[in-house]
Write a structure and sequence with these properties.
seven-stranded antiparallel β-sheet; alpha+beta; about 200 residues
């Protein structure tokens, strides 16, 4: 685990990106704008309504995210972030529509996760899908939630990719949840964090 975290530190976005400290650009501002091939048949659809009732968490310290991050990132804490998103970003969509964004991690090591929630967001979400696909996001199926619309962008650090990028957007009922994490490589490893993000909004 220690070696994996050390590797992620060298592959991380840096504080302004991977820990969500994107004061100007917003959650997606640190992602590469380069495009890659996409399946043209991947078209957005509405998520199947769930019987559970969802609401935006009222306080970042009252979610279950920190406990989940701590299982992989020892010493992680809630990082209070003075968000100042640029107009037109996903983060602006979240914060301008009664949503919330929360960052948890080890700031000095540049490792952690940022999770955001915004409700009644079906139109906000669907309006983003075409751009996500152009940017290289892939439509994915979430474990235990295969009927939920979800889009993942994964770009490991390489000679042509400066920062490690792992960003997931999904719509469950009308709740749009976004997860950015510096320590994830695949959906299987993200399952507990995804469930924690859903549980944190399940009232």
């Amino acid at each position: 685990m220690k070696n994996k975290q050390a590797g992620r530190r060298t592959a991380a976005f840096g504080l302004t990106c991977i820990l969500g400290l994107t004061f100007i650009t917003g959650l997606a501002g640190c992602s590469s704008n380069s495009t890659s091939s996409n399946n043209a048949s991947d078209t957005p659809r509405s998520a199947v309504p769930y019987t559970a009732t969802f609401a935006v968490p009222t306080d970042c310290t009252q979610t279950t995210i920190l406990a989940t991050v701590l299982t992989t990132v020892p010493g992680a804490k809630f990082i209070d972030t003075p968000w100042q998103p640029s107009a037109g970003t996903e983060l602006a969509d979240v914060l301008n529509n009664a949503g919330i964004a929360c960052t948890y991690g080890v700031q000095s090591a540049e490792i952690g996760a940022t999770v955001s929630w915004v409700n009644e967001a079906g139109t906000l979400f669907s309006n983003r899908v075409s751009d996500w696909l152009k940017q290289g996001y892939k439509k994915v199926a979430l474990e235990n939630h295969s009927d939920v619309d979800a889009y993942l962008l994964y770009k490991p650090q390489s000679e042509t990719q400066e920062f490690h990028v792992w960003e997931l957007h999904f719509l469950i009922n009308t709740m749009w949840i976004t997860i950015n994490a510096s320590y994830l490589d695949n959906l299987n490893d993200a399952s507990t964090l995804i469930e924690s993000a859903i549980a944190s909004a399940n009232v």
